[in-house]
Amino acid sequence: MGFVVGNIPAGNTTAWYIVRAVGPSLSQFGITNADRHVTLTLTNSKGQALPGPGIPYAFDVNASFALVGAFPLVSGTAGDAYLIVPLPSGIYTARVSDSSGNGGQVLIEAYASPTPVIVAE
User: Fold this and answer.
1) How confident is the model over 53-112, as pLDDT tens digits?
2) On the chain, which terminus has fewer CB atoms closer than 10 Å, C or N?
3) Are strands 107-113 and 49-50 parallel, antiparallel or unpaired?
4) What is the model's pTM?
5) How far apart are alpha carbons 97 and 101 in whole angstroms?
């Protein structure tokens, strides 16, 4: 899936985005053939993998998802993948793969986000 980040508010060099590849958590919607081992890779237009080093935050993940209207991931479900990252203007590609080789249904989403909910350290 490709997407473009543009029109970043004045005074900022990046905007926050949440990118998700949901497999196992689709079970809450009755989907029984979801991919169980989702891997998510985000790259910029130069093919560089993101996020790069230096994002020193711990996020309240489901609270951050709620900010953008995304459903929560099922607690204790391994296999879903997400990134919460600041991105500069540009073109991005989110790729999903299955580390088990078994396949299944996956929902991939990208949300522009206000500042995510950061957990106090």
Assistant:
1) 556 678 888 888 999 999 999 876 678 999 988 899 999 999 999 877 888 999 999 999
2) C
3) unpaired
4) 0.86
5) 8
Q: Which two tokens stand for residue 12?
A: 């900022």
Return the DSSP state at 105: B
Tell me, what's the pLDDT at 45? 94
Residues 6+ apart with CB under 8 A from 26: 34, 105, 106, 107
Q: How far is CA 111 from CA 21, 70, 108, in A?
A: 12, 9, 10
- CB distance 54 to 114 below 8 Å: no
Cα distance between residue 89 and residue 84, in whole Å: 16
Structure tokens given for 74:
């099922």
- SS3 at position 29: helix
The structure tokens 């953008």 sit at: 68
